[in-house]
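Figure-free illustration: sequence to structure, shown twice.
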Amino acid sequence: MIFLSGWSGFREIYPEISKKCKYIVPFEDEGFLERYLNEIKQEEDLIVGWSLGANLIIRELDRLNAKRIILIAPFFNFTDYVNKRAIDLMIRSFERNREKCVIDFWSKIGIRTDLQTKVSHSLKDGLIFLKERNNFNEVYHKRNILVIAPTNDRILPLNAFIEVYKRIFGSIIKIYSNHYIEESILERIIFDNI
């Protein structure tokens, strides 16, 4: 199993899940985009993606070999729901003080802010990436795809997740949660699917 996390979704926020799988944090280090596709293409069983990680999976859906995919808080184009100016403000905040920027983001999405982690400057590339358009083409597939839709998300609206669900021909579970879903709940969903 591979878990492709969201922006600043370090192992510290999902400590148990990160012990049980290959855990990848988008843009955690330089060269991420060149490397991640090869890693997720090798997985033949289950790939889980949260937020930015889900978007990266959607972009490569037709090239993946996994039989089962779980997409948590997925979206096609972030800027359809979040103004580019808000992303630019976040980039400027990150440039001024990247640790504070991550803590502020975590606070907004429901993650404990007392966690300690190293924040790499390459995370800025992830914010820039969120402004890019994804020209998703519907593809016929035989995968079992589950969309987890947080209904109390403070970043993206529920219709972002429903749009993904409708266009990828999957199943959907709605959960009363902010953008970050508590690890104990997520573990039950993921490991019940293994």
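We now fold a second protein in the same way, so the two outputs can be compared directly.
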Amino acid sequence: MVVSQKGGVGKSTLSANLSVWFSEKAFKSTVLLDLDPHGSSSTWVREARSSDVVTEHCVLDDFDARRWLIDCRNRVRRHVNKVEVLICDLTWTAAMDPEILYEFDLVVVPTSVSSIELSATTRFIETIGWVFNSKNGISPTLLLCPSRVSEAELATDPFSARDFSVPFMLLPPIYNDDSVRQLFKKQFVFDVKESLAGQSYSRCAQSIQQAGTIHKQAARAVKVKFSDRRFLDTHNTKLSRYMAEKSGTRLSGSDEADR
């Protein structure tokens, strides 16, 4: 999943280019599930040039957290057993249920590196952090992607001054290049091999592929004990889940289910 709380950080650009990169460079059967209301990533893939990527654009407008989770999960699972790579493009809102992240191996969060933007990213990660700190079952791997940045910004080492609440991998940066906007619906960034942006997108995609391999190897090595299995979350709202976690309440035996 490629996810952020706000626009302007290159989320949809990364999603579109990543899906075609996996299809053409990694030779993987790939689906792009575009849940962003604007549908930019799926539009880019469909109209730029021919590719083997299967695209689906849908807007899940039922923001009751539980119904949204079920609808989104069903769409993901409809594809996941048919292809090798599923990329989901999602703009996060407060009404969404972080439990959906368990459906994915990797969660990629693009972020710029200004103080304001990094503070917002830190707060966002804190709201979904319990997913990555889960002691039961296998959590997804969090990847932070410095996006649309300059070498001068990176020279300040902006991430070392931040205290993130969950472990993460830092992806190679995607450098800012105004010409990328001109490629929309025409060609893909990694096609422009001589550009700094094209090279940085390729490096980022390769690192994401490597992170996926590492995650799967780690997941195969984990043996989940019966006592440590994840429970099917039957809380109706995020508030009820929060209150249950605070009080240490566990689901009843009838609500248990293997992950």
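Summary for the second example: The chain is about 35% helix and 15% strand.
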